[in-house]
Amino acid sequence: MKFELIKKVPIVEIDGKRCLVDTGYPGAFMSAEHGVQEFFGIPGLHFAGVQALKRYTKFDYRNSEITTSDEPIPLEGGEISEALAYALKTLRDEHAISPLALEVFMSRMVDRLSSKEVAEKFGITVNNVTLIVFRVGRILRNHDSRHFNHVSRHFTVPLEVRPNGWLVKMRVGGVEGMRYIDTGAAFSYVHNLSKDFPSAGIADECSFDGRPWTAPMCRVPCEFAGHPFEILCGDARDNKANPNGCAVPPEGVIGYDFFANFTFVVDRVGGKMTFIKN
Length: 278
Description:
By secondary structure, the protein is α+β, with helices and mostly antiparallel strands. The protein folds into 2 domains: 4-74 and 155-277, Beta Barrel (Cathepsin D, subunit A, domain 1); 79-152, Arc Repressor Mutant, subunit A (Orthogonal Bundle). It has helices spanning 34-40, 82-94, 99-109, 115-122, 126-140, 256-261, and strands at residues 4-6, 9-14, 17-21, 29-31, 46-48, 56-60, 65-69, 79-81, 150-152, 155-158, 160-162, 165-172, 175-181, 188-190, 199-206, 212-224, 227-235, 253-254, 262-267, 272-277. Mean pLDDT is 85; it is low at 144-151.
């Protein structure tokens, strides 16, 4: 299903109805309140929750597409040579190179960004980019890459499936724990968010019953399976989505920024997620 991203949430068409795909909603389909329809500018908007999805679901925000099927869905792309895989493993295991340094190398050599672009992307110097690329190249020169097949850059992690959503292990603002991943959340929220993170302005939000509200946001560093990324995040006490009580579970809710940084396939029966970093 191709989707339109409106206010950072995916809107698809199912059986002639425009639906917000919301992995934080435990049901199948539900008509959105009038105020919610007005907030998104979509008359007749519905929610499509996790019960509307099949065993396997692929989320590909780069191509504005969500695919759901009872059959396994391939995760395309992300292949590298075994020689390169060996070099990266050697750097990680023998030279204690951080996941960030490996991402720097992949951006420079595989994604073909310039050294300047990589330096700006990760906030490091061009000299550091050059040093990382040189060290990987030196290891590769000791091996004949013609004898290596290609291997996947895909990673697989456990997925915890609960009646009200899906959780994966993630480090948010230096605190590791299980986090809900929610396509229906334009912004992320965690409990007891530190005030030390830089401000990212004010988010315009809408409650389940259609009431608009706002919340202050911060830029918060995260890490998922060794891969760094950043989210716009607010404190749970500022979330007014649910008028009847706290809208944020103890684990927190991670929204749009997670889906923008990773392409992945969820196997909700097998309890796992296979992904590549965008």
